[in-house]
Every structure is written in structure tokens, then in C-alpha cells.
Design brief:
The protein is α/β, with parallel strands linked by helices and 371 residues long. It contains ten helices and 16 strands. It has two domains: 3-18 and 258-365, D-serine dehydratase-like domain (Lyase, Ornithine Decarboxylase, Chain A, domain 1); 23-242, TIM Barrel (Alpha-Beta Barrel). Helix content is 30%, strand content 23%. The chain binds pyridoxal-5'-phosphate. Residues 45, 67, 88, 177, 179, 221-223, 239-243 line the site of pyridoxal-5'-phosphate.
Length: 371
């Protein structure tokens, strides 16, 4: 095992459990700041860690702008001291009432949401205005991921005009997330981002020429982060999320990014059901099952092992090295997808200087805190 992951005494650590390596989280945040050039150019997404203590490490380094996907994440960030939060989600149904509740609970906080449909925007604006409140709204642009957003066209222009003209909402700029840009080749990734950047800049000029403010462009995730960070235009806020904890999928695919896995999962062998088989207590309730079975869990101690079954509480591996493990023996796993692995744990161990120094709550794993 890599010495940076060594823990002096693991005897009393439960498995499966996540260990957060605090120094590595800090190094990842500092590398993120270095690439961004300044804290104002960042709006990291907290959905990866969902923990107040990690948000505080970012805030302590001058990062005031943050991104969230749920109201629980918004509350966790606000309670941790974030003063500017973008909920990158379109409020609909009862979430419109929760938008009002956020403005009431944190009146001094800069709060914004996204929109991509005139009817949903109208409902939001009417409810905000009726409550005597207002919220910044960013138009969500579909850059090719086809998950949410409007293409750059008259419809998006008209929606922006709606935001300008309606009471209860104010224009917040553009939301430009490109989760489909996962090109392993860095030049191909750069080219893909550049291909949509020209039209995006022209669209921004069109909005400005209409006399409307475009205060921010919230751009990208981890893979495209260095590309957006290098752009000279004002108002860019990069919003990587995975970066702070990193995982084996990103580590394997984006070798140009110098981030270190900082959340590993401690697991123990519970059985050796065959000569070349070994079973660990890290089921799909401990490490996320959303990547393919072959890349869900990387064991640095058994890099060649082939996963055969992954059930709720068991991971069965086939490997010629199975005999190296007996029940009770432990190892560490680098999750394939760290965001959806962390969210399966209420609490994580925190390591510093090779020792476990405490635990942190994964506060925003719950859907509802107080709002
Ligand atoms: C809207 C939005 N912004 C930012 C991110 C962060 O991207 P990454 O996980 O690649 O850092 C995500 C990830 O899901 C996202 O959905």
C-alpha cells in the first residue's frame, strides 16, 4: 500500500468505512486554486463530499462561491459559512417554496438557481414576488450533454428576457455544465470545449447588447476545468466537484489532472470461498454500483483482481493472490465513483499524519435538513 494511505492503528476501525485523508483534500483544494488562478474564479460543487468540514477548508482558502444540487447541500454550505451559493437545479413543485425558505433563512446570502423553461420560471417568479422575495436565475444552457438546458438560440434569449422583466427573479448569467466532455485525450477535450465556447461568447454579447447584465458564466466539471480556467474572459466561475476527493475512474482517465484520491474505503476479508476467490465486506451499499462492475472498486493491493459478484454487503474477487488474505485481513479500496460512494455513509473517519483524528458527518447525504 502506498505510504500516504498508511494508518498507524486500524484495529478498532469499523469496516466498511470511508477514510478521508485531510492533507490530501487540502492538497487537492490547493491544486484547484492554482489552476483557477484566484478563488473568485471557482465555484466548486459540494455534491462530491456533502461535508461541512470540507466546505470550511475551501472557505478558509478564500473560496466564497459554491455550487449545490440539493436543498440539503445548500443548507449544509450556508451553515458552514458559504456566502454565495448556486443551486444548479431548476426549482419545481414544492422546491419553489423551499427557494423562498432559503431566502428567508439566509437573507444576506447571495442565492441563485437555474431555469430552462418559461412556465417553471413564471411559477418561481410569481411565488418569489408574492413572498416579497427575489432570487438570481441563471439560464441553463445545453452544451451537448442533453440532460437539461436550452440550446443557444432565440428560446434561450427569450427566457433571459423573461428573467430580466419579471418581478421576483433577477438575471444571474449562464450555467454551462458539460458533463459529456470526458475525452481522455486532452487535446480532444480542449477542442470540444472550444467548439461551444465561440457560440457561448457570441450569445453573451447578444444579451449584453440588449442591455442586460450577465454577471457570471458557471462552467464545467472536473475534466474540462483546466480548459475553462485558462480562458481570459471575465465572469468565469469554474465548478469542478469530484476534484477534492478524486476517484479511480477520473484518476485513470484524466492523467493530465494532478489530483490524488483522498477518500478510500477500508474493507476486510470475510471469506475465501475458493482457492482463487476472496470476499470482502464492501458491498454496493458501501461503494457505489453506478460504474460497471469491473471498475467500481480499485484495490491497490490486488490490482489484477477480477470482480465476480458485487452484492449489497459482499464483493467477491477472483485472483491468483487470494491466499494472501484470510478473514479479518484488511485492505483499502479507491472507489470508482466517489460522489455516490460518500453519499452512502453517514460519517467518515478523518486521517491526518497517519492517524485517525476524528470523524466528519456527511451532513447533506440526507435529502432534508431543516428546509
Ligand atoms: C451541474 C454540475 N456541475 C458540476 C459538476 C461537477 O463535475 P465533476 O464531478 O466532473 O467535478 C457536476 C457533476 O455531476 C454537475 O452535475
Amino acid at each position: 500500500m502506498d505510504p500516504k494511505y498508511k494508518i498507524d492503528d486500524t484495529t478498532n476501525l469499523f469496516s466498511p468505512s470511508i477514510i478521508i485523508y485531510r492533507e490530501l483534500v487540502i492538497a487537492n483544494i490547493e491544486e484547484m486554486l492554482r489552476i483557477a488562478g484566484a478563488p473568485e474564479r471557482l465555484r466548486p460543487h459540494c455534491k462530491t463530499h456533502k461535508m461541512a468540514e470540507i466546505a470550511k477548508l475551501e472557505i478558509a482558502r478564500g473560496i466564497t462561491r459554491h455550487k449545490a444540487a440539493t436543498f440539503a447541500e445548500v443548507e449544509m454550505l450556508a451553515d458552514a459559512g458559504a456566502t454565495d451559493i448556486l443551486l444548479a437545479y431548476n426549482p419545481v413543485g414544492p422546491n419553489i417554496g423551499r427557494t423562498i425558505a432559503v431566502r428567508q433563512k439566509y437573507p444576506d446570502m447571495q442565492f441563485s438557481v437555474t431555469a430552462d423553461h418559461p412556465a417553471a420560471l413564471a411559477q418561481l417568479a410569481q411565488a418569489m414576488a408574492a413572498a416579497g422575495q427575489s432570487v438570481d436565475v441563471l439560464v441553463d444552457i445545453n452544451l451537448g450533454m442533453n440532460r437539461t438546458g436550452l440550446e443557444i438560440n432565440d428560446e434561450a434569449f427569450d427566457l433571459y428576457r423573461d428573467i430580466v422583466e419579471r418581478d421576483g427573479v433577477t438575471p444571474g448569467g449562464l450555467h454551462l455544465y458539460d458533463g459529456h466532455n470526458q475525452q481522455v485525450d486532452v487535446d480532444e477535450r480542449q477542442a470540444a470545449v472550444d467548439a461551444t465556447w465561440g457560440p457561448t461568447m457570441a450569445f453573451r454579447e447578444r444579451l449584453l447588447a440588449a442591455g442586460w447584465p450577465v454577471p457570471r458564466l458557471v462552467c464545467g466539471g472536473t475534466p474540462s476545468f483546466p480548459v475553462y480556467a485558462a480562458k481570459p474572459e471575465p465572469g468565469i466561475e469554474c465548478s469542478p466537484g469530484t476534484i477534492v476527493l478524486n476517484d479511480s475512474y477520473y484518476g485513470r482517465n484524466f492523467m493530465d489532472l494532478n489530483f490524488t484520491p483522498a477518500a478510500l474505503i477500508l474493507t476486510r476479508c470475510v471469506s475465501r470461498p475458493g482457492a482463487d476467490l476472496v470476499t470482502f465486506d464492501i458491498g454496493n451499499k458501501a461503494v457505489s454500483a453506478d460504474p460497471d462492475i469491473g471498475i467500481r472498486a480499485f484495490l491497490p493491493d490486488l490490482p489484477e483482481a477480477v470482480p465476480k459478484y458485487h452484492n449489497e454487503e459482499h464483493l467477491l474477487l477472483q485472483t491468483k493472490d487470494a491466499q494472501r488474505f484470510a478473514p479479518g485481513d484488511e485492505t483499502l479500496v479507491i472507489p470508482g465513483h466517489v460522489c455516490t460512494s460518500v453519499s452512502q455513509h453517514h460519517e467518515v473517519y478523518v486521517a491526518d499524519g497517519g492517524k485517525i483524528v476524528g470523524t466528519w458527518k456527511v451532513t447533506a447525504r440526507d435529502r432534508v435538513l431543516s428546509i
